[in-house]
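Weekly puzzle thread! Below is a chain. First person to post its structure in token form gets bragging rights.
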Amino acid sequence: MAFRFSRRLCITIALLVAAPLARAGLLDQEVSFTEAEVQAAVDRNGKMQRSYGGFATVALQQPPKVALGTPDGRISLSGSMLVAVVGQPPIPVDVQGVAGIRYDDRSKGFFLENPVATSVASPMLDRNSEPFVRQGVSQLMSAYFRSKPIYVLRDDASVQEATMRWLLRSVRIEPGKVVATLSPL
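Winning reply:
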């Protein structure tokens, strides 16, 4: 009985001491993964094509290039796509876009969140078509990244990464890296 009481007392004291430290961020630990690791994951995703009611097709021939932290707190994407309208040859279009990041606890994966094409450019693209093409490209980007994580926390990885699978509190994008904050509470 005395052993149980002492053990409970020690746990209670530890929680009372740890809670303010955790709220102050003093027990937090940060783990990061690099732009090169994110780019490698994106490169594994490969090609994708999407048809819009048989009227137009947007095709990603190569995975986009990724830049972390430019603009601040976001992920920049750049690449080239082919846009084809029925009866016309495909038009190569240079695309620039941005996205955020989200963590899915069920899959233990980090995904690009709300990728949006910010600009589309091609000498063969009519100015009146740009909004339609930008919308189609944004939809393709969203579909492309929806189910393909840019990083997955593995059980068999480092102790930090295995711990992150259970204690992840927040995630942010900095220049050249994604930083995950771990917290015990």
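Puzzle host: Confirmed. Bonus trivia for everyone else. The two ends are 29 Å apart (CA to CA).
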